[in-house]
């Protein structure tokens, strides 16, 4: 599938712990069944609304949360925003049946690492889960196009250094911090510092927003990778 990514062929030998959040039990059951086909994905829990998601995430500490957006009690966008504040090491993939633009933008603004449609194949979703666990951006192609078109970033507070521009481009191409460190021949901690600084300079909150910034300003394209 075509997104802002460059798949990591090396993968990971550690199972990714996943929490499923959807108000429809049949959807959760289907996701659990499909994801169960991947031996490196461990579905550790389920939740029926955003409030339950926060409670279960705090208890289970999953690597990735699959988050429906339209739910009772607390919607997925609100839950994503709160979860990312409370558990910054847990990544969120928004999973929904529509590409309504306010939902797409809302999910990414809230801190979702990826945005997928419910009609995605089990292989596509599993790959997105592994990517999120590695810190790589994954977006449905049409969602990416809409986000790039509508994305508005704050004014740049300070010019990026050449190294930060390279890191920004690699983020847009879907690379994790580990990938970037290997590519640039530096320590992963150094890459984390570059990422933190460039987000601060751009006035952005997440890697996904950074990827969109790079696309919006011509530093990367949707056809690369």
From TrEMBL:
The modification 4-aspartylphosphate is found at residue 68. CDD domains: LuxR_C_like, REC_NarL-like. Keywords: DNA-binding, Phosphoprotein. PROSITE patterns: HTH_LUXR_2 (PS50043), RESPONSE_REGULATORY (PS50110). Residues 153-218 form the HTH luxR-type domain. It holds the Pfam family Response_reg. InterPro entries: CheY-like_superfamily, NreC/VraR/RcsB-like_REC, Sig_transdc_resp-reg_C-effctor, Sig_transdc_resp-reg_receiver, Tscrpt_reg_LuxR_C, WalR-like. This is Response regulator.
């Amino acid at each position: 599938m075509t997104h802002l990514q460059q798949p990591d062929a090396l993968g990971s030998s550690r199972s990714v712990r996943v929490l499923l959040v959807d108000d429809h039990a049949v959807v959760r059951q289907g996701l659990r069944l499909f994801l169960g086909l991947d031996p490196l994905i461990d579905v550790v829990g389920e939740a029926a609304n955003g409030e339950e998601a926060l409670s279960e995430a705090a208890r289970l500490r999953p690597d990735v949360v699959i988050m429906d957006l339209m739910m009772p009690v607390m919607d997925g966008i609100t839950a994503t925003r709160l979860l990312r504040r409370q558990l910054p090491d847990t990544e969120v993939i928004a999973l929904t049946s529509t590409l309504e633009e306010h939902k797409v933008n809302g999910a990414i603004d809230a801190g979702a690492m990826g945005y997928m449609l419910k009609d995605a194949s089990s292989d596509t979703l599993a790959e997105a889960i592994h990517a999120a666990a590695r810190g790589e951006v994954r977006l449905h192609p049409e969602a990416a196009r809409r986000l790039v078109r509508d994305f508005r970033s704050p004014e740049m507070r300070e010019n990026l250094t050449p190294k930060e521009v390279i890191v920004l481009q690699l983020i847009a191409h879907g690379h994790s911090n580990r990938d970037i460190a290997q590519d640039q021949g530096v320590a992963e901690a150094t890459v984390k510092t570059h990422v933190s600084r460039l987000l601060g300079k751009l006035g952005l909150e997440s890697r996904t927003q950074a990827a969109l910034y790079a696309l919006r300003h011509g530093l990367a394209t949707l056809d690369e990778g």
